[in-house]
Specification:
The structure holds 2 protein chains of 2 kinds. By secondary structure, chain A is mostly beta strands. Chain A contains no helices and 10 strands. Chain A has strands at residues 5-7, 10-13, 19-24, 31-37, 44-50, 65-69, 75-79, 88-95, 104-105, 109-113. In chain B, a hairpin with a 5-residue loop joins strand 6 and strand 7 (70-75). Chain B is mostly beta strands. Chain B is globular, with a radius of gyration of 13 Å. The chains are: A mainly beta, B mainly beta. Chains A and B meet through strand 4, strand 5 and strand 9 of A and strand 3, strand 4 and strand 8 of B.
Chain lengths: 114, 111
């Protein structure tokens, strides 16, 4: 597509429920990144993919967070048993390859856990 | 990973030139310097990238001294629409995809 698409744009969920956030990167971009941004804060690195592989998962906040990417395209970030501290904007970005090559970000998914 | 330090906030007036400096003392030989702009409720947007000396595009200029331990983003004649958070990002191939953004500089442009 023309840009990075994320869905849903907004998600309100009850504490303890599981949520799935989707990212559709720019066609042909092999690198995909997930960041989290809490209200008024900077960007917190979560995970990146090179193709379908995630070489570094150390940024995931807890084992309730997982991510996958299939077909070198769409990625899903799953949060199990959501907690109120998970409330944030989850941003996805893609680039032609990994490294500092200029990311294109999506508009994010605003997650609110009530 | 190169750590970056920027001013937390800056104020300016319409029509002025704004310079935002980022310190990155432990920048590596293969690292590039990239700046992003973020408006509220949007993802960051790529502005400019450089390795050394000066880079200019239709939006901004990036000045990088010879030692590369800092960089300055220059926005000419800012307008109200330039009010945003500006992030400096330093990295290259060796970190793979794990690139860490700093806290950013919140620029407020006043009429």
């Amino acid at each position: 597509g023309a840009g990075v698409s994320q869905s849903p744009s907004n998600k309100v969920t009850e504490k303890g429920k599981d949520v799935e956030l989707r990212c559709d990167p720019i066609s042909g971009h092999t690198a995909l990144y997930w960041y989290r941004q809490s209200l008024g804060q900077g960007l917190e690195f979560l995970i990146y993919f090179q193709g379908n592989s995630a070489p570094d998962k150390s940024g995931l906040p807890s084992d309730r967070f997982s991510a996958e990417r299939t077909g070198g395209s769409v990625s899903t970030l799953t949060i199990q048993r959501t907690q109120q501290e998970d409330s944030a904007v989850y941003l996805c970005a893609s680039s032609p390859k990994t490294g500092n090559y200029g990311y294109t970000f999506g508009s994010g998914t605003r997650l609110t856990v009530v | 990973l190169a750590k970056t330090t920027q001013p937390i906030s800056m104020d300016s007036y319409e029509g002025q030139e704004v310079n935002i400096t980022c310190s990155h003392n432990n920048i590596a030989t293969n690292d590039y310097i990239t700046w992003y702009q973020q408006f509220p409720s949007q993802g960051p947007r790529f502005i400019i990238q450089g390795y050394k000396t000066k880079v200019t595009n239709e939006v901004a200029s990036l000045f990088i001294p010879a030692d590369r331990k800092s960089s300055t983003l220059s926005l000419p004649r800012v307008s109200l629409s330039d009010t945003a958070v500006y992030y400096c990002l330093v990295g290259g191939d060796n970190q793979g995809g794990k690139l860490i953004f700093g806290q950013g500089t919140e620029l407020s442009v006043k009429p």
